[in-house]
Amino acid sequence: MKTQRMYREGLTFCLLIISLCFASGCSGETSANTASNGTGKKIIRISIGTQDQTINTATGGSVIREEKLLEKYLPKTGKYANVEYKIEWSSYTSGPPITNKMLANQIDIGMMGDFPSTINMTTFQAKGNGVKTLYIASLGSSPTGAGNAVLVPKDSSAKTLADLKGKEISVPFGSAAHGMLLKALKSDGIDPEKDVMLVSQAPEVGGSNLKTGQIAAHANFVPFGELFAYRGFARKIFDGAQTGTPTFHGVLVRSDFAKENPEVVVAYLKALLDANKLFREQPEAIATKVEKWSGVEREVVYMFLGPSGLQQLNPTIGQVNFDALRNSVTTLKQLGKLDDSINPEEVTKWADDSYLRQAMKEMNLNYDEVAKAEGFVIGGEDAQTKEPIKDPKMAAQIWIKGEGNVMNFASIANMMTMLQTLAASGKTAGALFVHDQTTGWKLFAENSFYVQNGKTVSAFLTEKEAQAFAEKSGAKVANFQALQQSIAQANQLPMLVGAK
C-alpha cells in the first residue's frame, strides 16, 4: 500500500504551510497592531480568526461578531480614552490557516481545536522570537470526544471500522478527528499504516467524496459528523465519544497583544461569557441565527450546543482540557509532527486563565463555581403529558419545521405518540432527538437503534450496544421505522413518514 508515503506527504505539506509564514517574520514583544489615524487618535487593531462552520467556536466567534458583543465591552477610559478600535474578523475552515496568520502577526486572537492548538503553541515556542500564544479560554468541548466521527456513504454496507479494512479513509491530517481515527483503528486491531489507506482531505472535499461514493469513509470533527448525516448522504458508523478521549476548541492570543492590551483581552472574554449566556437562555433562537451566519442547519447547531448537547460550553480551563492537550502531544509525536523534546506533562504551562478570571470578577462571576457547574441538560415538563422530565438520558425532543421552539418529552414513547398526532395535523418534524441510554449522548432519532420493554423505549448509538442491552431483557432491537410502526399500531394512528 501507499499508506506510509501518503502519510508523510500529507504531513510534510501541513508543516510546509506553517513554515512558510516565517518569511513574513515573527516580531518580538512589540506589537505591530497599533497605529495613529493622523488625527491624534491611537488605533488599536483587534484581528480575530474564527471557524464559523466549526460551530463549537460560535460563542467565541460568530455570536460575538454578529451581536456586537465585543463593542459592548471594549474599554473607553484611562489609556483607552483617545483610542479608535479597528476590529477585523476572518473565518477559516480549519486551524492551520489561523496559525499562519498569527505567526505573521496578522491575527491577534484565534480559535481552534486541541490538535491545531498544540501545533500553534509549540511552533511559537520554538520560532516565535519571544512571542508565545496563550491558551486563555475554552469554547465547545466534550469530555469523551463526542463531535468527532467516522462516516460512510449512506448506502455503504459498512457497519463497523473492521468493514473498512483494505479501503481508503480520508481525514484532515493533524486534526482532532485524525487523532480519534488513529486511536479507534488501533483499538479495533486495525493497523492504520497496513490495513487501510489514509489520505488527507478537508471537510468540504471529504463530504463531496462521500456524496459521490469516491471514498469508503471519511473522518471529521464538529459539526461534519452530524451535518453530513443530517443532509442525508452519509451515515455515521463510529462516534469519537466511543474512544473516551476528551476534545475541545479553545481561544489563543498572541502574548505581545495580551501584554500591551490586557483590558481588550478581558473585554473579548466578557463578550464570550455573554455569548455562552445567550446560548443557555435562548438555544433555539441563537441556533437559528448561527445557521444564517455559518450555513450549518440550526438543528445541527442545536444538537451540539443546545441542552444535553454533544458539546459543553464551559469557558474555564480544567483537567479535561489538559488531558486533551496531552493526548494531542502524544499522537502528534507519533506522527512525527512534534519534536521529541515536547513533554506532554508540561501542557499546563501553555494556559493562562488570568484574563478570564478578571473578566469573571468584573461580571460578578465566580471562576471556581463556573468550572464546577453542572452541564446544560433538558428539563421542564413533557409537552404531551405535562409530567416533569426527571432523566435527561431518557428524554426526547421534536423541532417542528418552521417553529421557533423545541418540544421536550420525558420519554421516547411520548415523543413517538406526539409524532403521530402531528402527522394527522399535517405538521412535519425538522429534527427528532433522542439520547443514548447508557451515556446520554444526543442522537438523531432516525439514525439510532431502539430496545422496547413495555412502555419503556431506550435508544442507542450503535446496533451492537442495543443488541447487548436487548439480550439482557429478552427484547428485540428495532430501527426507527420499526419503532414508529409499533407505536402507531398501538395507538391506532397513521404513521409519520420520516422527519425533515
Characteristic terms for this protein:
500 residues; D-Maltodextrin-Binding Protein, domain 2; disordered C terminus; globular; 3 domains
Radius of gyration: 24 Å
Largest sheet: 7 strands, mixed
Which structural class is indicated by helix and strand composition? alpha+beta
Q: How many beta strands in the DSSP annotation?
A: 19
β content, as a range?
15-25%
- Distance between the ends: 42 Å
Overall pLDDT metric: 90
Looking at CATH, which topology of the largest domain would you report? D-Maltodextrin-Binding Protein, domain 2
Query: How many domain regions?
Result: 3
Helix content: 25-40%
In DSSP terms (H or I, runs of 4 or more residues), the helix count works out at 18
Highest-level CATH class of the largest domain: Alpha Beta
Judging by the overall fold, what is the CATH architecture of the largest domain?
3-Layer(aba) Sandwich
Which residues form runs of ≥5 with pLDDT under 50? 1-30, 494-498
**How would the global form be characterised?**
globular
Q: What is the CATH superfamily classification of the largest domain?
A: Periplasmic binding protein-like II
